[in-house]
Design goal:
2 copies of one chain form a homodimer.
Chain A: E1 16-21, E2 40-45, E3 50-55, H1 63-74, E4 79-86, H2 92-110, E5 117-124, H3 131-135, H4 138-143, H5 150-156, E6 165-173, E7 176-185, E8 198-203, H6 209-220, E9 227-228, E10 238-243, H7 254-277, E11 285-293, H8 296-307, H9 310-318, H10 323-332, E12 343-346, E13 349-353, E14 356-357, H11 363-370, E15 374-380, E16 386-393, H12 397-404
Helix pairs in contact in A: 1-2, 8-10
């Protein structure tokens, strides 16, 4: 039910190897995708790689998020051990011990320190992690490491996703080739507050930890922090960026950094939009542009008020140009603007001008835009110079069905 | 599809007469309820009645809301002229003129000043009000005024409601009988921010305007301002309270006021809960109690985070005791609490104690609670003395269907 085509092409990244196995963590393997049996994934990074991350702000941040953040402070990461099917969230001290036990077992198999292993989990909240299933699969997992297994890894981290999300860039910096490749998962419980469910982005550039963190935060703020499926923020959101340093390109050089940022932003937006295109039950891909705002927060308040309105989302599902619901959603945002200056566009069609229905608006024009699979809603507040963009999906019967049946 | 039985019994209120006609404002009359043809309602109050109101905080407050607030400042209201089928919202200056024109015509028919008429509208946003249809129905409407037509009036203000909401109390104050009777409408676009869609409450007590306003605000804050269907705030929310002064009971007397407040709160909660029981597509009635909070805002932030979570609402629809989603919702609230103190109950069943799954929790116990039509979710933050309650409904296939097809 995903919106639009997806590309699964990618470039391997020097210094990165991957593996995935079926450890039997998921309760059922009857997913629509034959590769859904894979539920345990390993990413390996060359020695001296630099890894940074941003993590969920949900108060009930899952055990692996807490352990991972602690490990990242102590050592540079050599391995990401990722399971789907179980979130290891709201599991208390036992959950921490479970995550730690898996790291220790992985350390033994791979011959590194446990603090060089970052654990990640995604799936059902509140159930104990099946550590035995994980630990007994680690040798097979480690033995399968290969630089080309990106697509298998992308499939292995999926939960309600119907297709893997992978994006890749190869470009030239002063005669040297640089690669960025990333994977992500997420389809519901998506209104990231720092990052989305799980995203792993790697490159072969050289970069200090502080600079890499700064670059990641900036890129997250115009990609994963600009999407919503259902206004719900996961307990397990993590977005990681690793630089293996296998090229001679150093991001400390301003020209290299600028080029890298352009490519990274584009790649991360592709992954973030990939999550929305594959959102639970999505039949539409919706871009919401808010411009003419007095500051950035007003842009986001208005954009998310529209993007998260169940009434707006059902109208979009129905292809109904019910522009009154856009107006209602703007109006419920907790902001202070002059409504008599507000213009609203659906695609290129002006629905509202100066706070009232545009005199030349015809229902058929709005309906034509709404019939498309990809829809742009543009709000001009005419009250300042700030603009921003949020991407979202519609609210369909399928969304209710998927989430009513999630644990059955 | 409403949850539970509703009572349609009521006591007429001395000093109040009502009427309803079919003016042809609604596009279609194929509602499930035979009385859905009625779409124009008149409430008449005796001379020297006192009327107060609270109104939506949506920035795009509808034309009738703006006109009504202005009239209320000038004169005491003698008539409420209410139409369903068209919200007269986001209609700009033309919308104001349309509302005013209806008031002037009603003033002519009834022989009072136009400022003694308050207009109310509910229905589709962004369409011009069909003033001609309204104006030509006013004589018939006025001629039909009768003290007993409460149920007809309650039906006449319905939109997607499947049944009318009416509540009534008769009680004794120092030997004198006092009556309160009210009607309300609302089923979707319900997260009132001051009041819900439309509610009209009347009594025969004597009261000054300032005191009556104070009483109404207090009662709204524990009734209509504690419900949500879909987190969407209507442009037309209005809640009115009128005292006709036909008894000898004066609310300036503290004992009388205390008794009156008890009965009014109970009546307004019944109406507010009636809206949730009849919420669009509702199959469950959900009470969310948050206690042990450091202040009231934290209670409401947590309660609404749960009540408005699409993932929580679909789990409730499915009868799935997916308590991880409760945890996720609490965690996404923008509050500062110690999560290791949080207890969560589903009915009497403890799901979470001290921030992790309760050791003796059994899935079957949670499932038994979730199978009921009425569900109580209780969160104890163990971090203070404040508590509050919010009522909500589930998110069903029917909700999507109703709102995808609303204008077709």
């Amino acid at each position: 039910m995903a919106v639009g085509e997806a590309s699964f092409d990618f470039y391997p990244v020097p210094g990165v190897r991957l593996a995935a196995v079926a450890a039997g963590i998921r309760k059922s393997f009857e997913g629509s995708h034959e590769s859904k049996a894979h539920d345990l994934v390993l990413l390996e990074f060359a020695e001296n790689s630099t890894t940074v991350g941003v993590f969920t702000k949900n108060l009930f941040a899952a055990a692996p998020v807490q352990i991972g953040k602690a490990h990242l402070k102590q050592r540079d990461a050599r391995y990401f051990l990722i399971n789907s099917g179980n979130a290891n969230a709201a599991t208390g001290e036992e959950g921490n011990q479970d995550a730690l036990r898996c790291c220790e077992a992985m350390a033994e198999v791979s011959g590194v320190s446990y603090a060089e292993i970052l654990p990640f989990s995604t799936g059902v909240i509140g159930e104990r992690l099946p550590t035995e299933k994980i630990i007994r699969s680690l040798s097979e997992l480690f033995g399968g490491l290969d630089p080309s297994k990106w697509l298998l890894a992308a499939k292995g981290i999926m939960t309600t996703d119907t297709r893997p999300k992978i994006a890749s860039r190869r470009f030239n910096v002063c005669g040297t080739t640089v690669t960025i490749t990333g994977i992500a998962k997420g389809a519901g419980m998506v209104q990231p507050n720092m990052a989305t469910m799980l995203a792993y982005i790697t490159s072969d550039v050289i970069c200090t930890k502080d600079l890499l963190q700064d670059i990641l935060v900036r890129a997250v703020n115009c990609s994963f922090n600009r999407i919503t499926v259902d206004s719900d923020t996961s307990t397990n959101d993590s977005c990681m960026l690793t630089a293996t340093g296998k090229t001679l390109v150093d991001l400390g050089d301003p020209a290299a950094q600028e080029l890298f940022l352009l490519e990274l932003n584009s790649l991360m937006q592709e992954l973030a939009q990939g999550i929305i295109r594959d959102a639970e039950g999505a039949t539409k891909f919706v871009t919401i542009n808010v411009e003419g705002a007095p500051n950035r927060q007003v842009c986001l308040d208005v954009a998310y008020a529209i993007a998260n309105s169940p009434l707006m989302k059902t109208a979009i599902f129905a292809g109904d140009a019910n522009w009154g619901r856009i107006v209602m959603a703007i109006g419920k945002a907790d902001i202070d603007i002059d409504v008599s200056r507000v213009d609203v566009y659906l695609g290129d069609v002006c629905l509202m001008r100066g706070g009232a229905k545009a005199s030349n608006y015809r229902e058929v024009d709005g309906a034509n835009v709404m019939a498309e699979e990809e829809i742009v809603i543009r709000v001009n507040l005419n009250s300042g110079d700030f603009s921003d963009t949020v991407w979202t999906s519609d609210l369909s019967h399928e969304y209710v069905k998927i989430n009513a049946e999630y644990r059955t």
